[in-house]
Each structure stands twice: as C-alpha cells, then as structure tokens.
C-alpha cells in the first residue's frame, strides 16, 4: 500500500541492490530525516548530507563502474530517490542534481576527459553544475543566447546563465552555448565543460528562494572564457541532444522525488490524524477524513506504478520513454502539490507552523512543477504526442465520420 513501497511487484532487485536500498531507508530514519529541518533552515549547500551519501555509495549510483560508479538501474535510483524524498527533498535533489550535472559529461565527454573527471564526480571530491537556463531562455531553451566562437585551438564562450543549482560549490560547469556564426534554433547549440577556475567565470552570491533549501542556486557569467577543443561534449551542434538526454533522466528523478514526498506527507498526516483528538475522537475517525486519506492513498499508489514503469521503460531503452517521462513528471509533481496541501490541512493550524514538517514539504513541492520543464511544457509535449499517435493509429472501430444521424442504435 502507498505508505510502504517495500516488496512492490514492479520492483525486482538483486540482493546487493536491496541491501543498498535498505541502508538508504535506515539512513532516512536515523539521520537524514531527523536532520532535514536543520539542513533546510541553514540553507547552505548540504555538505554533511552530500558526504554521507557519497560515503554510503549512493552518489556513485549515477555513474558507470568503469569510472568509479555502481551503474545502478533507473528503477533502483527512483526507489532510492523516493525513500530520501519521503523525509528530505534536499538529500533527494543531491542525488538527482549529481546526475543532471554529470550526465552530459558521461554521454558526450571524450575518453580522456571522462577518465580525468568522472571518478572524482562519482566519489564526490568534485562537483559539476548544469548551466543551460538563461535570463532570456528557460522553457524555450532553443533560443538561448550564450555564444561561442573558435579561438586558439579551442573556443571562447560569452554569456549569462541563471538558476544554476550548485553553482556556488561546482568545480566544473556544463555550459550549453550557441555557435557565433551558426544556425539559429537548437541546431546551433553545443555543450562544453568549463572549469570554474577558468579566467572569466564569475559566480554570483546564492539567490534566495522559497524552498529546495540546502541546494543553492546562483547566476553564472562567462566573459571571454577560453576552453580547449577537448572541452566539447559530443560533436558540435549536439548541445540540444545532450541536454534532452540529461533532462530525460532528471524528469524521471523529479517524478520520483514528488512520489516520495507525497508518500511521506500522507504518513505524517495519517499519524497526526490518529493521534490528534477533536470532538472527543481522533481526527482520523471522521469519515470525511478517511475519504480524503483513501483518495490520496489510491492516487499515490497509481502514481507509484507510473513512476516505476517509466523507470523500467528507461532501463529497457524504449524509444518513447521521453513521452512517458513527461507524463510521470507532470502527473506526479502536480499530484504531490495537491497531496501536500491536503495533508497540511489535516494538521490544522499546526500544519502551517515551521515546527511541523509539512510547510517545508509544501515549499519544496512547488519546485518539482517548475524544474526540468514546467507542468505546462509537459502538457504541451504530451498533448502533441497523443494527438500525433492517434493520427498514426487505425481509425477507432466505433468512429464513423459520416454517420446516419437518424439512427437510434
Ligand atoms: C530552484 C531552481 C533550480 C534550477 N536549477 C537549474 C539548473 O541547475 N540548471 C539550469 O539550467 N536551470 C535550472 N533551473 C531553471 C529551470 O529549469 C527553469 O526555471 C524552468 O525550465 C522554467 O523556465 P523559466 O523559469 O525561464 O520560465 P519561463 O520559460 O519564463 O516560463 C514562465 C511561465 O510560462 C509558462 N510557459 C512557457 N512556455 C509556455 C507554453 N509554450 N505554453 C504554456 N505555458 C508556457 C511556464 O510554464 C511558466 O509557467 C532551476 C530553476 C529553479 C527554480
């Protein structure tokens, strides 16, 4: 049932995978959960949590074995992310954020670049940040304006990136920029690895935000930054392809975070409702409350099946996994927002207090509807996909475009 994902029929894990997941549950119960409010309150990069997740081999799940990782399946990763997010969005986003920032390097880096960089990313001694969004290009990344031009055996990059998670702690940036004299739109985009220490890179102070604390964001400026040819990821013009490949994984990660948080919120609200007395009875003994809980439970369980099956499609390499990832991201992040609001309501006035966890859950939930494609963008993608698919399918056997209008049957 929704409060406990253990032994879910869609999740078959090898013994060592089950062991890692059990360890994550233990960490959530013993350290990460109890520490989550402090981490969020302090709102500086959550080094302690990050180092713990590195030491326990959780960060390494995003990386192939040949570069020091453990090559975890997406299914195992969503289970881990779900467990972390049931108590602490920060720790879950440390896992998804590592993936977001490292994936383009893994997918497009030269062998020598990967050998040099990835083992340190896998063990957490270095960090990367993914710099795609700009002040003038968020949802519409094909219009981004950062530019690069050939110079001295490499390229010179100029531009400003906005909302960059971990910018304040990153050692390297993956920067997507447009070829100066190249085509407009997504075809002109390429991705580069840029060391933070390169002359011309400036990172702003952390930018205050509503929630998602412990993983700060900042603005990053690139002014005549020179990188060698070997910093190019993939081939020239493949920046959008690499970004899409990265965002696909990140979208599944957002859905898993939202699932975990919804599940955690329902557990908190149900335990509160069992304990809190109103009119001489527990809150949970009122039928209206039971119906709310029942609806939330049913929706979470359906969302869980959606997230797990999307992860399985990813692991299988299904051609249409991007559409499924959009469905999971849109549906589960929107659901999580609604569930957290309802769960907070079940705590009455206490739900609104900082001393109780659901106000933090509520602030964090909003982010999942925005990052890696807003809900509106995913609706657009899914709508087009479904209509396109319908156009390819045989006509429905009951649909007649010129029916007999006088027929009663
Ligand atoms: C905490 C946080 C962390 C982030 N981390 C990173 C990071 O590490 N790296 C990075 O590159 N980016 C990052 N981002 C950026 C994030 O991906 C963008 O904010 C997001 O893609 C939305 O872009 P935007 O903010 O420019 O909104 P806009 O694109 O300006 O959209 C504004 C509104 O218009 C709606 N809209 C846009 N187009 C359409 C349309 N066609 N139809 C209907 N509605 C539409 C949107 O849904 C939204 O509601 C982060 C953002 C936040 C808040």
From TrEMBL:
It holds the Pfam family Acyl-CoA_dh_1. One of its GO terms (molecular function) is acyl-CoA dehydrogenase activity. Its cofactor is FAD. Keywords: FAD, Flavoprotein, Oxidoreductase. The keyword Flavoprotein applies. The keyword Nuclease does not apply. This is Acyl-CoA dehydrogenase. Residues 237-386 form the Acyl-CoA dehydrogenase/oxidase C-terminal domain. Residues 15-124 form the Acyl-CoA dehydrogenase/oxidase N-terminal domain. InterPro entries: Acyl-CoA_Oxase/DH_mid-dom, Acyl-CoA_Oxase/DH_mid-dom_sf, AcylCo_DH-like_C, AcylCo_DH/oxidase_C, AcylCoA_DH/ox_N, AcylCoA_DH/ox_N_sf, AcylCoA_DH/oxidase_NM_dom_sf.
């Amino acid at each position: 049932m929704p409060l406990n994902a253990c032994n879910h029929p869609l999740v078959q894990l090898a013994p060592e995978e089950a062991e890692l997941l059990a360890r994550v549950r233990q960490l959530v119960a013993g350290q990460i959960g109890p520490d989550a409010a402090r981490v969020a309150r302090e709102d500086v990069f959550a080094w302690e949590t990050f180092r713990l997740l590195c030491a326990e081999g959780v960060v390494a799940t995003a990386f192939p074995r040949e570069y020091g990782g453990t090559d975890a399946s997406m299914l195992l990763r969503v289970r881990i992310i779900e467990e972390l997010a049931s108590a602490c969005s920060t720790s879950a986003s440390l896992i998804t954020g590592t993936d977001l920032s490292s994936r383009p390097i893994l997918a497009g880096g030269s062998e020598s670049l990967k050998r040099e960089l990835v083992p340190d990313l896998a063990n957490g001694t270095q960090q990367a940040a993914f710099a795609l969004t700009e002040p003038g290009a968020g949802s519409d990344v094909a219009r981004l304006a950062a530019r690069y031009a050939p110079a001295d055996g490499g390229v010179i990059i100029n531009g400003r990136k906005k909302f960059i998670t971990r910018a304040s702690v990153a050692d390297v940036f993956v920067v997507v920029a447009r070829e100066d004299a190249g085509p407009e739109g997504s075809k002109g985009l390429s991705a580069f690895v840029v060391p933070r220490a390169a002359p011309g890179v400036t990172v702003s102070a952390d930018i205050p935000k509503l929630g998602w604390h412990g993983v700060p964001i900042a603005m990053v400026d690139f002014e005549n930054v020179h990188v060698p040819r070997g910093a190019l990821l993939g081939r020239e013009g493949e920046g959008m392809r690499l970004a899409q490949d990265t965002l696909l994984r990140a979208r599944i990660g957002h859905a898993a975070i939202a699932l975990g948080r919804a599940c955690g919120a329902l557990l908190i609200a149900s335990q509160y409702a069992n304990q809190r007395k109103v009119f001489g009875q527990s809150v949970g003994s009122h039928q209206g409350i039971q119906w709310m809980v029942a609806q939330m439970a049913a929706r979470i369980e359906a969302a869980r099946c959606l997230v797990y099956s999307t992860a399985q499609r990813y692991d299988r390499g299904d051609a249409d996994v991007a559409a499924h990832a959009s469905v999971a991201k849109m549906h589960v992040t929107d659901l999580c927002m609604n569930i957290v609001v309802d769960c907070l309501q079940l705590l009455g006035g206490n739900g609104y207090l900082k001393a109780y966890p659901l106000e933090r859950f509520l602030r964090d939930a909003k982010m999942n509807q925005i990052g890696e494609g807003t809900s509106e963008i995913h609706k657009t993608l899914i709508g087009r996909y479904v209509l396109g698919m319908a156009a390819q399918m045989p006509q429905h056997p009951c649909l007649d475009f010129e029916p007999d209008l006088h027929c009663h049957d």
